[in-house]
Design a protein that fits this description.
Layout lengths: L1 E4 L11 E6 L10 E4 L1 H4 L23 E4 L8 E4 L7 E7 L2 E4 L1 H4 L10 E5 L8 E5 L7 E5 L5 E3 L11 E9 L8 E8 L3 H4 L2 H16 L6 H6 E4 L16 E4 L5 E5 L5 E3 L7 E2 L13 E7 L8 E6 L6 E5 L5 E3 L8 E2 L5 E4 L8 E4 L7 H8 L17 E2 L3 E5 L5 E3 L1 H4 L7 E7 L8 E6 L8 H9 L7 H7 L8 E2 L1 E5 L5 E3 L9 E2 L1 E7 L8 E6 L5 E5 L5 E7 L11 E5 L8 E4 L2 E2 L10 E4 L8 E8 L2 E7 L6 E6 L5 E2 L12 E3 L2 H4 L1 E4 L5 E4 L28 E4 L8 E4 L5 E8 L6 E9 L2 E8 L9 E7 L12 E7 L6 E8 L2 E8 L8 E8 L11 E6 L2 E4 L4 H4 L4 E8 L8 E9 L1 E7 L2 E4 L11 E2 L2 E5 L8 E5 L17 E6 ...
Parallel strand pairs: 1-2, 18-22, 23-26, 38-45, 48-53, 82-88
Antiparallel strand pairs: 2-45, 3-37, 4-5, 5-6, 6-7, 8-9, 9-10, 10-11, 12-13, 12-41, 13-16, 14-15, 16-17, 19-20, 20-21, 21-22, 24-25, 25-27, 27-28, 29-30, 30-32, 31-34, 32-33, 35-36, 36-37, 38-42, 39-40, 39-43, 43-44, 44-46, 47-81, 48-49, 50-51, 51-52, 52-53, 54-55, 55-56, 56-57, 58-59, 59-60, ...
């Protein structure tokens, strides 16, 4: 390998040629950009384009531009497309001076309105050719460069045209591995169906198609000319009442893939070649989507270029994986959980430097509260339903897909702060401040705000349609103009971004389209140019002076730009993975940037290396450059023979858990009448209109279950499984077949109401079988009879699931149940949490405490007042937090804190404020107790809403989310107003929009006569004096949180960021890997939101391994084996097969229950505690191991009711550190007694009696 510094060399032998040139950096500067005028740069066209009469310029997007060195002088030149101005080729003369040489170069394209531009060496002759695309005129151009910057049109391109539209963008890559660049173009519509067809004819064609589908026939050709069918065959879990059948969508136009013949000639592929197949490998017609942008990138890490295509309107984005030969398979439906509704531009990056590819697609959501309210109108309702798991909703905001490394992504734009960047077009991730993390740039603006609700109402009132050409010409002036500031966000390195447009120099308001980046001044950083609508180009010089390394590659033969090569800076700042960039060609919104790469080096100066992975035909090769110096440009030529490179194959350890769903999917279910049938364990849920009662509810209450529990119902030594049900379903009980290989199921009687929390307990002196206690919700009472209390049910485990009304009901729906010996009499008492009062949300609900009097439960009159208006209780658990010998109560509240009720001899006292927890008000969903730091005291883990919701960045600890409630319009209905303080204006503003607020309270529409007025006003101005009547609740923490017990004060720690991607419901603390340290599992997701709110689907169940000091490390799904994509609810742990490993079961609302068997943990010690005839499972006891080195293990609490509406097995599995054996077991008994017994040598299971002595061991 020959490296010359600041010189020219001749390559010797077959080694790489590397030229290293010092960069001329300014002595002073600052992070950001300096706007340069057209007078300084000369970047102003010499002539204007005269638009055709009565033909509107494109109103749904803008033109782009391309950067590249066309004449080989080492300076980056620029081509600019225009619609209202002439196209121009500007030659860079140095020192930020450009000269218009469009005419002499032969690329005027006079009379054609161009959309996009890309420089690419399409014929492999080592100079940059030019590709131009046109949406409006449907005429594309490919010009070949003679090496001197003079161009002639290439007639060897078999362009495919469609009268319905044209091409926005072009992208290039060697898709088939033959060494040359192939081309993909996106097709966008300019003629809509309602311009081609009148309404009656369109309905007739639709009818023909639907009739054919119903009869399972192929629709006629006339149907396919105008429509496509979405079969939705991939969506599982649909109910008969849902729209599970095929759906029609308008057919727009196909994108085109053109293969290069090696000489610059291109031919379009056809469907007959089967180049594009669905995720199952089945042949499919290429989608006819309104596509904006296509970008090639090695998304799955196998070395070849995959493809992502953004689509507008209701059509989905497309992710295609390349097999290396140019054949593409569509990604699995679960690969991406949701996408943007109106996807425009996009770009790839590694946001958090974990080595996985992430990407963002841009939509139109505004940062401004006012604009959001004027643009939302009657928003497009997010696709919803019961049991919808494999569907992929589209949401009206940006989406940031965070790669997991297994070709699946979690969408986290809300958490990251990137969900809103105005009406967005071009997108680029680039490291502006050179700190090792790529920041975000977005071009924004629109000719007119066609989302403006007031203007839309005016158009409709006039009987016009903005999708029709003649109506557009008449009404476009009715919509307000929408110039906006281009957007810059700084990547903070922790998955979050901060707004930096003003700080980094983006102060101009304009209507921007494409953007291009290049080092126009040779200082080794990327400058930036935006192509604006009618205003001058925005030309920004990069002012950053931080150290950097610039890299420019030259490839072999037909790929002289080395497109597809990856460059990594080893030893640089940030991490854990090295900075990696891939050289791409085109793929920006209607634009193409220069191919030079820039890496920030931070303070590192002597450990830097560059690793280059070349793609030569279908092979990968590697070049390693050591002793890389900051502030230099490395120009590297690909050697003819290079070191072969094989992608490192990480052989993962076997996952800790393996799915054991087969044990539940083919159960023999016995009904109460004795009949048997095969059935799947699927939660029954019925459709219910929650919003009929209170239309402004934030979320549904009808889809909160089910809970789940493990218990030995028949006392045969094997845990059985009990699963709650929704209305019109049955309690499901699955009895172990006593060898761990399966279950025999039994159904209880059909229940009319939703079942809620459940637990299993001994109600009397132990003479009877355990009692299954099940809460009910009166929320779904037919005929609005929700004032009729719903009782708490009891099911006899030994009498064919005989059902009885165990406890009288209350006006509140029952939420969690928790049992423990509250009064110290040896039996188990019962707490019934009040979840909500139907039609009275968020009014605090009553909870109740029942004392066990020889098997009869009686209300605890001494604590009745304590639990009146206790709050909206979502989770509850008993445990001795203060170690005084009696059990305290910890309750999770929505719109409140995690409340702690200290038990003083049976009298409960609220110590939440005294113990410092009152200030952490959240939407808590669940709670569990465990010793995460190994100090012997019980810590609190609480599930909340997480940080990846629409509410993120609308609140802070000091400025919480708020909700006020009262009958504001005096119509007998409790009204709800959610609000927060807007960070841009400082005013309190309503969360919901004018339309839905007016439907709930008509005076809102009367008081605020337009969307503009509604959006402009503060909360007080919108509602007036009536708002003062309402009671107010607050929430200032949405993070899932660990509260570490520090002698009745708590140290507060958020769960890892990966846990914050979705709401948490199920919550379990156990030593899953049996290393002697407590771990945590959380069940995630919530889809049952109000119609305008995107579902929360960023989780798939998360296992976090404890370090024994209170820290938790998230384990990805590949390593844990846990991948549950639905609405997870209750979860519970048990060693159901008695192998000494803790297994896990997870319910899903409206879908299958998932069972996971722990296969890889070292076996631990199984421990059973018997606290006497009335508490034979030792509920309330705390067990702890003493190891042979003298160290104590963590405390483990035995509970009846914990997490979310669920119950873990009473049999504990206690692990030990490697090469350590347990010698003694310490038991802290209910009532305060502590005993310690010796553990027999090599014991796998022990049972301890209430006298503290060993009953048995195995």
């Amino acid at each position: 390998m020959l490296i010359l510094f600041a010189g020219v060399s001749v390559l010797l032998g077959k080694e790489a040629k590397i030229v290293v040139t010092p960069l001329d950096l300014p002595a002073k500067g600052k992070t950001g950009f300096q706007l340069l005028s057209a007078q300084v740069t000369g970047l102003s066209p010499k002539s204007r384009y005269a638009p055709l009469k009565d033909v509107p310029i494109r109103e749904t997007g803008h033109s782009g531009l391309a950067a590249g060195d066309v004449n080989g002088d080492g300076l980056v030149d620029l081509y600019v497309c225009g619609m209202e101005q002439a196209h121009a080729l500007y030659i860079n003369k140095g020192n930020w001076k450009f000269e218009d040489q469009t005419k002499s170069a032969g690329v005027t394209c006079s009379g054609w309105r161009l959309s996009g531009a890309v420089f690419a060496d399409v014929d492999g002759d080592e100079d940059l050719d030019l590709v131009l695309t046109s949406l409006l005129d449907g005429r594309n151009f490919m010009y070949l460069n003679d090496g001197q910057g003079r161009f002639t049109e290439n007639r060897e391109v078999g362009w495919v045209y469609n009268p319905r539209g044209g091409t926005v963008s072009a992208a290039f890559a060697d898709v088939d591995g033959d060494g040359d660049l192939d081309m993909y173009t996106t097709g966008f519509v300019k003629v809509f169906l309602n311009q081609e067809l009148d309404m009656d004819y369109a309905l007739e064609i639709q009818k023909l198609g639907l009739q054919a589908v119903e009869k399972k026939r192929i629709p006629p050709e006339i149907f396919w000319e105008y429509y496509d069918i979405d079969e939705k065959s991939h969506i599982k879990g649909l109910f008969k009442s849902e729209d599970a059948g095929p759906q029609m969508r308008p057919a727009y136009m196909e994108d085109q893939l053109y293969l290069n013949n090696g000489k610059g000639g291109f031919s379009a592929v056809s469907d007959r070649e089967r180049r594009f197949v669905d995720y199952q490998g089945r042949m499919m017609k290429r989608p006819r989507d309104p596509s904006h942008e296509a970008l090639f990138r090695d998304i799955d890490g196998d070395g070849d270029p995959d493809l992502y295509v953004t689509a507008d309107f209701a059509n989905p984005d497309r992710l295609w994986f390349n097999d290396g030969r140019g054949y593409f398979r569509q990604a699995h439906p679960q690969a991406i959980r949701r996408t943007s509704q109106f996807s425009m531009g996009m770009d790839f990056t590694d946001v958090n430097r974990d080595g996985h590819v992430d990407f963002l697609t841009a939509d139109m959501l505004s940062r401004s509260h006012k604009r959001r309210k004027t643009q939302m109108g009657d928003m497009i309702v997010t696709e919803a339903g019961i049991g919808l798991i494999n569907n992929r909703p589209q949401i009206m905001q940006n989406t940031l897909q965070l790669g997991r490394g297994d070709s699946t992504w979690a969408e986290v734009a809300q958490l990251s702060g990137l969900k809103a960047t105005e009406w967005s077009w071009g997108v680029s991730f680039t490291d502006i401040d050179l700190d090792g993390y790529e920041d975000l740039i977005v071009s924004t603006g629109m000719t007119r705000d066609f989302m403006d609700s007031d203007s839309q109402k005016r158009v409709v009132a006039a009987g016009r349609d903005t999708n029709k050409l003649e109506d557009l010409l008449l009404t476009r002036e009715w919509f307000p103009k929408l110039p906006t500031q281009n957007v810059a966000y700084r990547n903070k390195g922790d998955l979050t971004f901060e707004y930096k447009s003003d700080d980094w120099g983006f102060t101009t308001e304009a209507v921007s389209g494409g953007l291009a980046q290049a080092d126009f001044d040779g200082d080794g950083d990327l400058d930036l140019i935006f192509n604006n609508w009618t205003s001058p180009l925005e030309v920004y010089r990069n002012e950053t002076v931080a150290p950097r390394v610039a890299v420019r590659l030259k490839g072999l033969e037909g790929n002289s730009q080395a497109i597809g090569a990856k460059v990594r800076l080893l030893g640089g700042p940030g991490g854990p993975a090295p900075m990696e960039q891939e050289i791409v060609c085109g793929g920006g919104y209607a634009s193409g940037s220069d191919t030079m790469l820039v890496f920030g080096t931070g303070k590192v100066t002597d450990t830097l290396q560059l690793e280059i992975i070349w793609r030569y035909n279908e092979q990968l090769r590697r070049t390693l450059i050591k002793n890389v110096k900051p502030n230099h440009l490395y120009s590297v030529e690909e050697p003819i023979n290079n070191e072969p490179y094989k992608i490192p194959v990480m052989v993962p350890r076997p996952p800790l858990f393996v799915p054991a769903d087969h044990l539940l999917k083919s159960l023999t279910i016995r009904s109460s009448d004795g009949s048997a049938q095969q059935a799947w364990v699927k939660h029954n849920e019925s459709l219910f209109d929650d919003f009929e009662y209170q239309s402004l509810l934030p979320n549904r209450f009808s889809q909160l279950g089910p809970g789940i529990a493990w218990a030995d119902l028949n006392q045969d030594g094997w845990d059985d499984l009990i699963i709650g049900s929704g209305s019109k379903g049955e309690l499901m009980v699955h009895m172990s077949n006593q060898d761990g290989s399966g279950f025999i199921g039994q159904r209880g009687p059909m229940n009319q109401l939703d079942q809620t929390g459940l637990l299993i307990m001994t109600a009397n002196n132990g003479g009877d079988a355990p009692l299954i206690v099940v809460g009910q919700s009166n929320y779904e009472q037919p005929g609005k009879e929700f004032e009729k209390p719903a009782s708490v049910l009891g099911f006899s485990a030994s009498q064919n699931l005989t059902q009885s009304d165990l406890l009288s009901g209350s006006l509140a729906t029952t939420g969690p149940l928790a049992a423990a010996d509250v009064d110290g009499d040896g039996d188990l008492d019962l707490f019934v949490g009040g979840r909500t009062v139907p039609a009275r949300y968020p009014e605090p609900a009553d909870s109740r405490l029942f004392l066990n009097d020889e098997g009869e439960f009686k209300i605890d009159e001494s604590n009745t007042k304590v639990f009146e208006k206790f709050g909206l209780v979502t989770g509850a658990v008993f445990g001795d937090l203060d170690q005084d010998g009696d059990v305290d109560l910890v309750a999770a509240l929505e719109w409140g804190p995690v409340k702690v009720m200290r038990n003083d001899a049976g009298k409960f006292i609220d110590v939440t404020q005294e113990w410092g927890l009152d200030i952490y008000k959240g939407w808590w969903n669940s709670v569990a107790l465990g010793d995460l730091d190994g100090d012997g005291s019980l810590d609190i883990v609480a599930g909340n809403w997480g940080r990846n919701s629409k509410y993120e960045y609308s609140y802070s600890f000091k400025e919480p989310l708020r909700i006020t409630y009262s009958d504001f319009d005096e119509n007998g209905v409790l009204d709800i107003v959610e609000y927060h303080r807007d960070k841009l204006t400082g005013a309190l503003v309503p969360e919901r929009g004018r339309s839905c607020s007016t439907r709930a309270m008509p005076f809102i529409g009367q008081r605020n006569e337009s969307f503009d007025v509604f959006g402009e006003r503060s909360l007080e101005e919108v509602y007036g004096e009536c708002l003062k009547e309402g009671a107010v609740l607050e929430s200032n923490v949405l993070e899932h949180t660990v509260f570490l017990n520090r002698n009745n004060k708590f140290e507060v720690r958020a769960l890892p960021i990966e846990a914050q991607f979705a709401p948490v419901f199920g919550l379990n603390i156990a030593d899953f890997n049996n290393d002697g340290k407590e771990d945590v599992f959380v069940a995630q997701n919530f889809f049952a939101t109000q119609p305008e709110t995107p579902r929360s689907d960023g989780g798939r169940g998360l296992l976090m391994i404890g370090d024994g000091k209170g820290g938790l490390e998230p384990i990805d799904g590949v390593e844990s084996g846990i991948e549950v994509y639905g609405e997870q609810r209750g979860s519970a742990v048990s060693d159901f097969n008695r192998d000494g490993r803790t297994d896990l079961v997870i319910t899903q609302n409206g879908a299958l229950t998932r069972l996971y068997q722990n296969k890889e943990a070292r076996p631990g010690l199984r421990v059973k505690i018997n606290a006497g005839p009335t508490n034979p499972t030792g509920v309330g006891a705390v067990v702890r191991l003493l190891w042979d080195g003298g160290e104590m293990g963590p405390s483990r609490l035995i509970t009846a009711g914990s997490g979310y509406w669920s119950q873990d097995s009473a049999v504990q599995v206690l692990g030990s550190p490697k090469d350590t054996k347990p010698t003694h077991l310490e038991v802290h008994w209910p009532g305060g007694k502590t005993t310690r017994i010796e553990i027999p040598e090599d014991a796998k299971e022990i049972q301890v009696g209430s006298d503290g002595k060993l009953i048995s061991s195995k």
